[in-house]
């Protein structure tokens, strides 16, 4: 459903990553952009070629002759996938591993052996420009809707040259162009069994002979896929006004905005039952959700330098609230017969307010234990022993400790073991971190240059050169990260820890409305800036059936990083705050200081530069058979952190045989050098530990579509790889026992099989999908293995009339349990404690659909 569409007749135009000419053709969009999803994509290209604009810089170049690993998914493919998130759409690209368990946003994805959560190496673009310069986190500010025409991707290869921070892959979402020929209108209503209600629209029409506009977007109400007492609202709107010059070329002014709330799901407790993952009584694996009413709004004490009131509200009711406002200008103008000039620029103002509930964070499995253990002052078993010690000091007549349910007011003492062990059918309590993270950012990008093409006989050459400039600023407020004690069930309750007399009467309260600690993750105040310039050139040469490509990009990044400093003495909590914790914990003192003074100096500034380069070749033996090979050396900027390099070797074969067979196979090796990231020290979460390692992956990627008869087709895409860790260090110290381990959260096997049956008389199609995710490890120490799983989905698209289409689909119809991530804040040497562990899980069976009206 991806490359299979393109391999037959696909033509490659100029790369949207660097050249505007290919994106904005002076003709109507390709036929497939207007094709109803019910029409099979293999037949959608009968009357004309699909045009791909990502990964190459030569116009009208068939994909079979390309020397890059390029994937196309058109609108029909996207609708067939019925994505619930941006991450879901990435599963249309072979080699992308998606951990789509966080909800609609903030999901993890990686490529070709990179450890889970490596999304900053995968650049998400919209119409050829990065959604965010840094790559990671772009799904907060982008959703697919009816304004999106198709998805295009290039993995490795030219990606590291033709865009910034895309050394692993570039995923480009291409918008529909304004319609210059007729009025076009689409409306869609979508609903799912878990409560999603959404309305989409798209409208376009010509205004004058050379002027047209389009506008589209959606409005929704969505409680999220897991059980939730809250409902989250949201909207996005995007529009464009385009003028086409008489002599060719265009100028397009566009804008978009949005304000979207989404549910968020972190890890939750699981247990092993006969070697298979299972749930805990009271908390279902498929739809269970710790969050709920108790987390609606919690006032957390914080430094007055961070928030003058001395409080910062954690609002579980808001989930993740993302706001965007962007304006963009694209210009293309041919100069003569062989030169095209282009320029595009965009300014994005964005923010997100992240209210994340993280069970087990910091304490890990040690925080998941019986209520009796919590209340018994034994240093070896109680996760709140320091609180209990402070309770004895504050209330000397204490006979025992107990818990008080903040919702019901019921008090249970530590001597009421029968009642405590029956709590929610499991007897557990846990420590849950309230992570309130606010980002406010500005991201300006500019890409300008030109393409010169020359042709003489069998000799053709296309040279593209240009400059990219990005100026970005991000301010972060992650102060007031605190923890509460709650039970283990869906819509869990929070408990106060109380001191009791001999008759179990409350004589004092140790916690603050369930809060047992403040400032868990440090001061949490940061500012980051980047000002970058890239110079790039890409040349593509064809001599008969041989094509040789080469490109280089040099980037200089001047980065500035400041961290809010922690006071030597923690600030007292505000008057009226109850409990025995009398300071706000790690206290922002109002002073900023350079991050990593040894690297940045007193001004907090560091300038780094590096070049990425690639060379590839393709030989086309026949019109239907070709081989290619490519080498690439790319990199990822990391603000003031060391630049990470990615080296790629790949060789592939492409073959097509009419409608019967389209396929490609690619052998690859990737070397991720100096992969560097931070994680919370599981002993002291306020301390950030650093891991540095080399990752080496050897694998094969396949994407094959077989159509033995006109009305039936099967697509198989997948990756089979052997990723390994090398030279791992933690905080600069070499670590034994990690060499040769699998990188955390990286499967060795990942494949999808998609059969489709065409209904007679063009009525639509029935399709299925089986997705297999191989075993992954939750940690670099390979201590916790999360088993493989397979998810089966089915769907039907039915054309009720020429203008009305019904799409129904069901996901995970066999209710399979699938786990991702583990507990990343437990460290790099995780373990299963007494059969229990933390992980994130896929949801159970869901079903729903949409009705689309075309006018």
UniProtKB/TrEMBL annotation:
SUPFAM superfamilies according to UniProt: Porins
InterPro entries for this protein: Beta-barrel_TonB (IPR000531), Beta-barrel_TonB_sf (IPR036942), Plug_dom (IPR012910), Plug_dom_sf (IPR037066), TonB-dep_rcpt-like (IPR039426)
Keyword presence, Secreted: no
UniProt feature, compositional bias: Low complexity: 27-45
Domain TonB-dependent receptor plug: from-to ranges: 65-167
Domain TonB-dependent receptor-like beta-barrel: 389-813
Entry membrane topology: Multi-pass membrane protein
Keyword terms, alphabetized: Cell outer membrane, Ion transport, Iron, Iron transport, Membrane, Receptor, Signal, TonB box, Transmembrane, Transmembrane beta strand, Transport
Compartments where located: Cell outer membrane
Principal cellular location given in the protein's record: membrane
Region called Disordered, residue ranges: 27-50
PROSITE patterns per UniProt: TONB_DEPENDENT_REC_3 (PS52016)
Pfam families: Plug, TonB_dep_Rec_b-barrel
Signal peptide: 1-24
Similarity remark: Belongs to the TonB-dependent receptor family.
Protein name: TonB-dependent receptor
Organismal lineage: Bacteria, Pseudomonadati, Pseudomonadota, Alphaproteobacteria, Sphingomonadales
């Amino acid at each position: 459903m991806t490359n299979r569409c393109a391999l037959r007749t696909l033509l490659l135009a100029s790369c949207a990553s660097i050249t505007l000419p290919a994106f904005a053709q002076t003709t109507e969009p390709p036929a497939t952009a207007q094709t109803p999803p019910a029409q099979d994509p293999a037949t959608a290209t009968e009357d004309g070629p699909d045009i791909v604009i990502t990964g190459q810089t030569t116009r009208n170049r068939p994909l079979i002759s390309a020397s890059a690993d390029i994937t196309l998914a058109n609108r029909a493919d996207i609708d067939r996938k019925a994505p619930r998130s941006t991450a879901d759409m990435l599963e249309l690209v072979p080699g992308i591993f998606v951990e789509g368990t966080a909800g609609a946003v903030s999901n993890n994805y990686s490529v070709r052996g990179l450890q889970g959560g490596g999304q900053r190496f995968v650049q998400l673009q919209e119409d050829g420009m990065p959604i965010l310069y840094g790559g990671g986190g772009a799904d907060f500010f982008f959703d697919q809707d009816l304004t999106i025409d198709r998805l295009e991707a290039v993995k490795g290869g030219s990606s590291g040259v033709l865009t910034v921070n895309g050394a692993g892959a570039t995923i480009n979402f291409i918008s529909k162009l304004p319609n210059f020929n007729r009025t076009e209108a689409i409306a869609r209503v979508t609903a799912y069994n878990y409560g999603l209600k959404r309305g989409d629209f798209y409208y376009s029409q010509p205004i004058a002979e050379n002027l047209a506009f389009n506008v589209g977007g959606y409005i929704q109400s969505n409680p999220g896929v897991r059980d939730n007492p809250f409902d989250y609202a949201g909207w996005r709107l995007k529009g464009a006004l385009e003028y086409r010059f008489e002599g060719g070329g265009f100028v397009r002014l566009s804008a978009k905005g949005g304000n979207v709330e989404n549910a968020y799901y972190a890890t939750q407790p699981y247990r092993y039952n006969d070697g298979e993952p299972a749930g805990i009584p009271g908390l279902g694996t498929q739809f269970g959700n710790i969050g709920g009413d108790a987390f609606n709004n919690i006032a957390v004490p914080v430094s007055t330098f961070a928030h003058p009131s001395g409080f910062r509200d954690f609002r579980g009711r808001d989930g993740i609230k993302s706001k965007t406002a962007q304006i963009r200008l694209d210009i293309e103008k041919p100069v003569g017969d062989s030169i095209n000039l282009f320029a595009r620029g965009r300014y994005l103002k964005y923010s997100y307010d992240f209210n994340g509930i993280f069970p087990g964070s910091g304490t890990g499995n040690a925080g998941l234990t019986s209520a009796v253990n919590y209340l018994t002052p034994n240093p070896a078993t109680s996760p709140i022993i320091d609180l209990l010690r402070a309770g004895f000091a504050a209330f000397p007549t204490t006979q025992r400790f107990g818990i008080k349910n903040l919702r019901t007011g019921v008090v249970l003492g530590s001597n009421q073991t029968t009642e405590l062990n029956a709590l929610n059918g499991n007897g557990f309590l846990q420590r849950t971190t309230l992570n309130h993270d606010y980002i406010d950012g500005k991201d300006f990008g500019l890409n300008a240059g030109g393409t010169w093409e020359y042709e003489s006989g069998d000799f053709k050459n296309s040279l593209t050169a240009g400059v990219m400039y990005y100026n970005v600023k991000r301010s972060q407020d992650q102060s007031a990260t605190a923890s509460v004690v709650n039970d283990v069930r869906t819509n869990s309750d929070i408990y106060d820890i109380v001191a009791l007399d001999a008759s179990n009467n409350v004589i004092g309260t140790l916690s603050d409305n369930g809060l047992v600690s403040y400032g868990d993750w440090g001061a949490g105040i940061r500012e980051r800036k980047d000002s970058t310039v890239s110079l790039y050139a890409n040349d593509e040469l064809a001599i008969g059936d041989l094509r040789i490509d080469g490109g280089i990009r040099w980037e200089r990044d001047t980065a500035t990083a400041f961290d809010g400093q922690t006071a030597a003495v923690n600030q007292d909590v505000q008057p009226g705050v109850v409990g025995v914790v009398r300071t706000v914990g790690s206290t922002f003192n109002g002073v900023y200081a350079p991050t990593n003074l040894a690297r940045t100096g007193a001004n907090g500034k560091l300038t780094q530069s590096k070049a990425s380069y690639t060379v590839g070749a393709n030989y086309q033996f026949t019109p239907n058979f070709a081989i290619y090979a490519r080498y690439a050396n790319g990199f990822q900027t990391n603000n003031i952190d060391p630049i990470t390099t990615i080296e790629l070797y790949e060789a592939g074969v492409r073959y097509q045989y009419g409608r019967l067979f389209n396929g490609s196979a690619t052998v690859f090796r990737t070397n991720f050098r100096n992969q560097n990231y931070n994680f919370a020290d599981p002993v002291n979460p306020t301390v950030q530990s650093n891991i540095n390692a080399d990752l080496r992956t050897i694998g094969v990627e396949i994407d094959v579509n077989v159509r033995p008869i006109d009305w039936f087709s099967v697509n198989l895409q997948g990756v089979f790889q052997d990723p390994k860790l090398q030279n791992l260090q933690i905080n600069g110290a070499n670590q034994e026992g990690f060499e040769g381990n699998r990188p955390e959260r990286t499967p060795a096997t990942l494949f999808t099989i998609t059969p489709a049956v065409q209904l007679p008389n063009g009525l639509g199609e029935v399709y299925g999908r089986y997705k297999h995710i191989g075993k992954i490890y939750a940690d670099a120490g390979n201590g916790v293995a999360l088993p493989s799983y397979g998810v089966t989905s089915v769907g039907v698209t039915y054309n009720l009339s020429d203008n009305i289409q019904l799409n129904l689909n069901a996901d995970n119809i066999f209710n399979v349990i699938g786990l991702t991530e583990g507990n990343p804040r437990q460290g790099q040497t995780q373990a299963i404690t007494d059969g229990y562990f933390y992980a994130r899980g896929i949801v159970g069976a869901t079903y729903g659909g949409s009705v689309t009206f075309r006018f």
